From TrEMBL:
Domain HTH merR-type: 1-68
Signal peptide: none
Keyword Metal-binding: no
Species of provenance: Phytohabitans flavus
Positions in coiled-coil regions: none
PROSITE patterns: HTH_MERR_2
SUPFAM superfamilies: Putative DNA-binding domain (SSF46955)
Name of the protein this chain belongs to: MerR family transcriptional regulator
InterPro entries per UniProt: DNA-bd_dom_put_sf (IPR009061), MerR-type_HTH_dom (IPR000551), MerR_fam (IPR047057)
Length: 119
DNA sequence: GTTCTAACA
DNA sequence: TGTTAGTA
């Protein structure tokens, strides 16, 4: 299928799909016309990319994790250690971010003279 | 009409 | 990422 079709099936813009390729996340074949030619598998791959992206992982991390994903239905399977490793790393990153945000909120609470949980 | 690459009022 | 330009 061509880029517009994959875009339609995944919701990713053609621009994003080309970007994923630049990052080595996708390797579509090329037609004699120069147009990218994606196989059906690409749909699943893009969904995996979107999932990992929404988890806060960067394209470089995703590039390392992607090959560890089993061609199951929707989600991924913690196969190789690299995957668990990268995911655990990202998780601790998030935990640290949450701590900083909580601090920032605490300061704002004082400045505002607010109660514990002002939305 | 669609896609491609490259580049940025 | 969007978007636009100039092509193939």
């Amino acid at each position: 299928m061509r880029i517009s079709e994959l875009s339609r099936q995944t919701g990713a813009t053609p621009r994003a799909l080309r970007y994923y390729e630049e990052q080595g996340l996708l390797r579509p074949a090329r037609r004699s016309s120069g147009y990218r030619d994606y196989d059906a598998r690409a749909v699943q791959t893009v969904r995996h990319i979107q999932l990992l992206l929404s988890a806060g992982l960067g394209t470089t991390a995703i590039g390392e994790i992607l090959p560890c994903i089993v061609d199951g239905t929707t989600v991924l399977a913690p196969t190789c250690p690299e995957l668990l490793d990268a995911l655990a790393e990202e998780r601790s990153r998030i935990t640290k971010s949450m701590a900083k945000l909580a601090e920032a909120r605490g300061i704002l609470d004082q400045l505002i003279g607010a109660r514990a949980n002002p939305r």
